[in-house]
Every structure is written in C-alpha cells, then in structure tokens.
Amino acid sequence: MTVDSPAGLCRAPFPAYGLIFVYLLALLCLPVVAGAERVIFISPAGDDAAAGDEEHPLRTLQRAHDIVQQENPRAEVRVKVRSDEGAYINERVRWTYYDPPHRVVIESFPPGENALFIADGTDPSSKPFFELVARTGCMTRLTLRGLTIRNYVSSAIVLFGDRENPKSGWNGGNEIVDCRFEGIGNARMSERHMVYGVVTMVNSRDNIVRNCRFADCANANEVREEDAETSHPGLGQAGDDSSFELLPIIAVYIAHDSRRNRITGCRFERIKGDIVRIRD
Length: 280
Description:
Blueprint: H1 16-29, E1 38-42, H2 61-71, E2 77-82, E3 88-89, E4 93-95, E5 104-109, E6 115-118, E7 130-133, E8 138-139, E9 142-145, E10 147-150, E11 157-160, E12 171-172, E13 175-177, E14 180-182, E15 197-202, E16 204-205, E17 208-210, E18 213-217, H3 225-228, E19 250-255, E20 262-264, E21 267-271, E22 276-279
Parallel strand pairs: 1-2, 2-5, 3-6, 4-7, 5-9, 6-10, 7-11, 8-12, 9-13, 10-14, 11-15, 12-16, 13-17, 14-18, 15-19, 17-20, 18-21, 19-22
C-alpha cells in the first residue's frame, strides 16, 4: 500500500491496519480549519516581516515559500502576486515545498494583468528566477499563472528533479500558464554566462506549458571561455573548433528523463535558437 506524505516521501509502505490507525489519529489531531485554502499575498510594496494577508502583504516569493514550508498547512496553497503595485526587481526563488495531493498556485492578482518580475542587470547571480527543486518521485502539482519574467540573464523557470536518479528522483504534474518570457539570455550582457533554456525541465514529468509567450530571447555572439569549455547539445564540445556565430537559446528545454510533457497554445517570437529541444 502507498500513501502520499506531506514530507514528500510518497511511497511509504504501511499495513492496512496501521494506515487506518494513522488516519483516525490524524482526524483527531487536525484543527477544524484543516483543508481550508492557505492564501498569502505579496507585493513590491510589501514587507517580509508582515503577516502576508491582503492588507499586510509580504514582499517576496521566497518569504511566502518559507512560511508555508514552516507551517506545512496540509491544504492547497495560493500565493497572490500583486500585479498593480509595481514590478518585482531581481527576485530569485528556490521552491522546495510541496504537499501531495494538494496544489500550490502562484498567480497574479488581481487577475487580468500579469505580475512583472524584472532583472535590472545589477544582480550578478546566474540562478534561475524560479527553481522548483523536488527529487522524490512525487506529483508536486505546482502552478505558475500570469507572471511576466523579463531580462533575466539566467533561466526563467527550472523544474529540477534528480538527473542521476531517473526512476524515483522525478517531480511532476506542474503547470506554467499564461506566462510571458521576454528578453531572457545574455545577449545584452555577453560577459555573463550563456543561458541554455528559458523554461527547463530535468527529470520532470506530466507538466503543461499553456498559453505562454516567449519573445526576444537570445544569447550573445561572443563565447565566454567557461562556456566554450563545457559540453551542451548543439553547442559543440570542449576542444571543438566549431564556429559559434550565435549561441542558441532554447525556449523549452526538456531533458534527462522528462516525459509526457505538453506545450500547447504558446507563441514564440524572435527566439535565437530552438523552440523546443528534447534530450534524454
């Protein structure tokens, strides 16, 4: 018998009677609000020391993550990202919280206008804007909806499972919906590392990228020594004498045992590289 665990260990065997006992004990221990949606608000004008409600929003997605990680609400989580109070500057998020079978939804608020996350060139980090790190063979069920990610010299979104453990190190069931990716790559800052993929999946399965727009994503014409010495499909190998007229960027890079992913209703404009690339 298998059960879903909030800690992410999704395949814990129990005898049937043990599972019934644990279930009854959980019913006794849960507060009456269990199962209610946990809602957190963030705003560029917010404060990470605030309560995170609509009147007192947080400032960053990372703080929203840290709160739900600590609380472990055992319910659906909805992070409302204010889209009408300015842009979020140089934000980067490492998201590790998930609670099968509940979904985590990060979405613009009020709906109808995307929340803008923009890199202004002053942050030297090469980390993605948003990185889901989950490597336990679980359906993580994360949704990103209505976000615009602009001018990052890094990947915009990475769904990161364990490339060395294809059998049980995957994540999946995630959705990227109504998002815009604009100006991703190092075309304006050739001294920075090249960007392989705008949206990248590593051992990540059963995901959907829907109704998104990718525009003006490119890498620089120049090759940094560090980049030329690494191997990457389509970019040559270390010691290769190939001519790199333009280092290609990949809009959606599906790699390392990522399976059954769908890309539907998306627009791709002025992408200096492949629209989609799949690598085993």
